[in-house]
Amino acid sequence: MADHEEQPHKAESLLEKFAEKIHGHHHDGSSSSSDSDDERKKPSAPPPPKEEEKPKIFRLFGRERPVHKVLGGGKPADVFLWRNKKISAGALGVATALWILFELLEYHLLTLVCHVLILGLAILFLWSNATTFIHKMPPHIPEVSIPEKPVLEFASVLSSEINQGIATLREIASGRDLKKFLLVVAVFWVFSIVGSCCNFLTLFYIAFVLLHTVPVLYEKYEDKVDPFAEKF
């Protein structure tokens, strides 16, 4: 009798375990399906905004490089753009002094060179004799020489600019752009009129002053000059 009573209890416990397993699987399936439904319902992330293309900025004379590169870069461009104010002011001061001497005071180049050499030799001669008389020994006169590297750099830049100008004139003379050809002829005609009114030294000095003023002012106010020039 005891064995018959234990068998129904074992059967009932097995049925209960089986029912719990089925219920558990059903609950897991419903949760996973609900999770998948939630994932589907979630809104997808919006695509990243496309970068707006910046409008092309108009630059004077159609340039695409900075002013420093247009002027050739290096030390000459630094002087024209006043990167070192002492050097730029010194160069402009020397040019102004030479223009005053040769143009206003009507000094001649050969006369100036001879006078400078006479003055320099006289100073060195008197200093040498005074030092020998006081210290009983000859003075040490420093050697003066022109450094080779800056001269070669200046010659290289100058030759490069001249060759570039010749190549530009050759391209204009090829007859491909009539508008540019007429513009260059007009510029040369204006220069010829200006040259008849003043000599070469004054014209060179005016160009030198313009190179020391116009580029640096344009670089400083290019954001205002370019939109104004675009209207024309």
From TrEMBL:
Residues 1-22 have a biased composition (Basic and acidic residues). The chain crosses the membrane at residues 87-102, 108-127, 181-211. GO terms for biological process: response to bacterium. Residues 76-232 form the Reticulon domain. Pfam families: Reticulon. It is found in: Endoplasmic reticulum membrane. It is a multi-pass membrane protein. Residues 1-55 are annotated as: Disordered. InterPro entries: Reticulon (IPR003388), Reticulon-like (IPR045064). Keywords: Endoplasmic reticulum, Membrane, Transmembrane, Transmembrane helix. Its main location: endoplasmic reticulum. It comes from the Eukaryota. GO terms for cellular component: endoplasmic reticulum membrane. This is Reticulon-like protein. It comes from Eucalyptus grandis (Flooded gum).
